[in-house]
Amino acid sequence: MKLRYQSYAKAWTEALPIGNGRLGAMVFGDPEVEHLQLNEDTLWSGRGPVDGNNPNAKHVLAEVRELLAEGRYEEADKKSKGMMGPYNQSYMPLGDLYLKFLHGGVVRAYERNLDLTNAITRVEYRIGEIVYKREMFASYPDQVIVIRLEASAPGALNFTARLDSPHPYRTIQSVEHLFLQGICPEHVDPNYYNRDEPVLYGDPETTEAIRFEGRLGVRLEDGAATLDHDGLHIRKASAVTLIFSAETSFQGYDKPPAREIGDMSATNEVRLEQALSKSYEQLRQAHIQDYTTLFNRVELNLGASEAPEGMPTDRRIKQYGAKDAGLVELLFQYGRYLLIASSRAGSQPANLQGIWNKELRPPWSSNLTLNINAEMNYWLAETCNLSECHEPLLGYIQNLSTNGRKTAETNYGCRGWVAHHNGDIWCQSAPVGDYGQGDPVWALWPMSGAWLSQHLWEHYAFTKDETYLREHAYPIMREAALFCLDWLHTDESGHLITSPSTSPEHKFVTADGQKAGVSQATTMDMSLIWDLFTNSIEAVDVLKRAEDESLRNEIAAALEKLKPMQIGKHGQLQEWSVDWEDEDVHHRHVSHLFGVYPGRQLTEQGTPELYQAARNSLERRGDGGTGWSLAWKICLWARFQDGNRTLQLISNLLQLVEEDATNYHRGGVYANLFDAHPPFQIDGNFGFTAGVAEMLVQSHAGEIALLPALPDAWPNGYVKGLRARGAIGVSLSWESGALKEAEVEAQVGGSCRIRTKETLLTVESEGKPVPFERVMEGVIRFDTEAGRTYKLRSV
C-alpha cells in the first residue's frame, strides 16, 4: 500500500498528494529544495454570487422547440445560444512552500513514498553518513499540514523556508510566524475561452474577490530559528516540525467574500498556535487515528503480485500494468485515499482535480462538471464504505437547488429547481457559455438536478436513514421532479419528451448531413428522468407522505408516458430519439448508457433486449478513451458481468502517461497514479475504484450479486467491508474463481436476496443455521435482524 519512487518529482504529476478535505499539498521531495504546492478548497476566483440567469431564455425556448419540431437542427443550435448565461469561476492555487537545504553533497539511497495505510508521505536520503528524513501529512483533526524534518547527526539540519504565491501577495514575519496574505482574481475565464485579459485582479485594498492567508510556524527541539524578510531560517537543528495553516475570506456560496481580514487572520492564528502547542507525536497519532477509522474499513486482496517488492511505482506501471494484481489493489485503495483527502465533513465537494491544482487557468476551470465528472467523483463513496465523505456533495446539492429555483423560473418558467453543465463554489445554476459564445452541445443541458438527485437517493439506499431522507434528500428530489414535470411536453405520438435536449458533448449527423447537438428526447434525458421519478415514488412510499400522494400519482403517470428507449439499425441502444449516425462513434461520453450504470433501469433480468442493445452500444464505442471515460466503461462492463472485458479496460487505464503527453484521446495514469484525461482529472481515479467494487459486489437490482464480474486473472482473493444497498456490509472470499464464503452484516434488518453463480448450501448467524428459500436458480432469500452478521457458504 505504498507509492514508491527512487527520485524526486520533476513534474507536478510525479509529486505526491496529501490532503485533509480542506487543505491540500503536492509534495515533490527534492533533497535540495523541497517544494509543497498548496491549495485550500474555498479559494476560487470571483466576487461572490452573481445572477447568471437569462430572462430571454424563456422567449428563445419556444422558438428552439419549434425549429426542432420542424427538423431544423442546425438552426436550433444557433438559436439556442441565446439561452446561455455567463461562464462560472475557477478553482485557484494558494501558493508554494519551499525549503532550501544547505547540506549540499551527492545524494545516495534516495526514496520517497506515500503510505496509504496512514496517509503520510516520506522522503529519505543519505549525504555522506548522515541520513535525512521527512514526513508530511495533512491533519483533519488539527486542520493543518505538518512537516517533520530529521537528521541522524546533531545540528545537521540547516535550511530556509519561504512562502510564495502566483497571486498578488505580501509576506509578513511576526515574532513566531512567517505568513503571506493575498487576493484571488475577480474573474478568470475558462482555459478553453480565448480573449484579452482572461484573468482580472482588483485593487488589493478594495477588491471584492476572496482574500487568503497562509501561515507557517515552527516547533524546534534543538538549534535556532530566525525570521526575516527572506523567510524562516533554521540552523544547527537535528529535528524540526513545521506547521502550515491557511484560511480564506469565503463566507458561503450565497454571500460575498469578507472585505476585512481580521477574522480570517485570527482564526488562522488560533489554529496554528493550537497545533504548535502539541508534540509531533501527538499530531501524528491524532491524524492516523482519524484517517484509519475511514481507510481501514475496506481490505482487498486480488492474489499474488508479480512485481518485485519495493519496485518503484512508475516502473511497475510501465512494466506490469494490470497484470500486477497488487498494482490494481493499490490503485483501488488510492481512489479511497484521494476521496478521504479531498472530501470531508465541512469541506467543499471534490472538484475536477479533487483539491490539487497549480494553475491560474486550470483545465476546464477545475470546477464541478455536472454532466458526469462531479458525479463520478462520488460513485465509490457508498459502495467503498466512505459514506461520510459523500456529505460535502450532498450539502452542495442543497445549496445548488436554492439557486436553481431562481433559474428554473427565470429561464424556463418552470417549478422546482434546475442546474446545468458546470457548477462552482458560488453554486451557479444557469447554463454557462458567455451569452452565446459556448456550444449548446454541452452548455444547454438542464439535467444535472436529476442526476445529482440520484446521489441523494443512493445515500439513503445505502444507509436507510429515514430522517435524512425526510429532512434533506426528498425535499430536493421533489423539487427536481417538479422541474422535470414542467420541462416535459407531449410529442405527436403522445409521449412525454424533453426539448431542447442534448447528449452531453456528442453531436449527431442527420441523413441530409446536418451536424448538431440539440434535438429532442435524448436517451440520457429520458433515463435520468426515469431514475428521478422512480426514486421519488419510492421515497414517497417509504416516508408515507399523504400530502404528496397526488404528486406521486402525477409522477407515476408521467413515468408511464416517457418516450421509450429504442434500438437502432446497428442493434445498438439509440443515443438520440432518431437513429442518426454519431459524429464520433468512439466518443468519450457514453451518456445513453446511464440506465445501465450508474442507473438501474436496464438489467439482464428486467429488460433483456434493451440491456443487450446497450451492450452493443458499448462495443461500438470501443475500448479506448480518456482516463475518466475508461473508468466509466470499467463500471459498465462490470454491470454487463464480463470480468475479462472489464480487466481489459483496467489494462488500458493502467498505462503510464508521460507529463508531455497531450493526446486528448489517450487516457491512462501519470507516474503518481493520478488519472490522465489528459491532462489530469481525478474522476478517473474515483471511477476506477467504484468499478472494481462493482466487479465484486452489485446491489442495484433489488438483490446482492456476489462476484458478478470476476476475471479469470484473479482466481483467488478476498474483499472485506464493501457496502450494499439496504444498509448491508459485504465481505467475501473466493478460490479457483468461485465464491468460497461470504459475510452479510445487516445494519437495519429485513429481507435479503443474494445472487451467486455457485449454489449456496448454508446460511448461519452466531453459529446457528438460518432458514432460506431458493427464489430462482442462483438466488436465495432470507430474513435478517438489525446488527447481526450472516455467513454464507457454497459447495
Key terms:
nine-stranded antiparallel β-sheet; Alpha-L-fucosidase; 18 helices; 795 residues; 39 strands; AFCA-like_C; alpha+beta; GH95_N_dom
Task: Describe this structure as you would to a colleague.
This protein is an alpha+beta fold. The chain is 30% helix and 25% strand. The chain has 18 helices and 39 strands. It has a nine-stranded antiparallel beta sheet, covered by helices on one side. β22 (489-490) and β23 form a beta hairpin. The radius of gyration is 27 Å and the shape is globular. The two termini are 33 Å apart.
Summarize the structure.
This protein is of the alpha+beta class and 795 residues long. The chain contains 18 helices and 39 strands.
List the helices and strands and how they pair.
Elements: E1 2-5, E2 16-19, E3 23-27, E4 33-40, H1 57-69, H2 73-80, E5 95-101, E6 107-115, E7 120-127, E8 130-139, E9 144-151, E10 157-164, E11 169-173, E12 178-183, E13 187-188, E14 199-200, E15 211-220, E16 224-228, E17 231-237, E18 239-248, H3 262-276, H4 280-295, E19 299-301, H5 313-319, H6 325-342, E20 368-369, H7 373-377, H8 379-383, H9 391-412, E21 422-423, H10 440-443, H11 448-463, H12 466-487, E22 489-490, E23 496-497, E24 508-509, E25 515-516, H13 523-543, H14 549-561, E26 581-582, H15 608-621, H16 627-639, H17 643-653, E27 668-669, E28 675-676, H18 683-696, E29 697-698, E30 704-706, E31 717-724, E32 728-735, E33 738-746, E34 750-755, E35 760-765, E36 768-769, E37 773-776, E38 779-784, E39 789-794
Parallel strand pairs: 30-34
Antiparallel strand pairs: 1-6, 2-3, 3-4, 4-5, 5-10, 6-7, 7-8, 8-9, 9-18, 10-17, 11-12, 12-15, 13-14, 15-18, 16-17, 19-31, 20-21, 22-23, 24-25, 24-26, 27-28, 29-30, 31-32, 32-33, 33-39, 34-38, 35-36, 35-39, 37-38
Helix pairs in contact: 1-2, 6-18, 9-11, 9-12, 11-12, 11-13, 12-13, 13-14, 16-17, 16-18
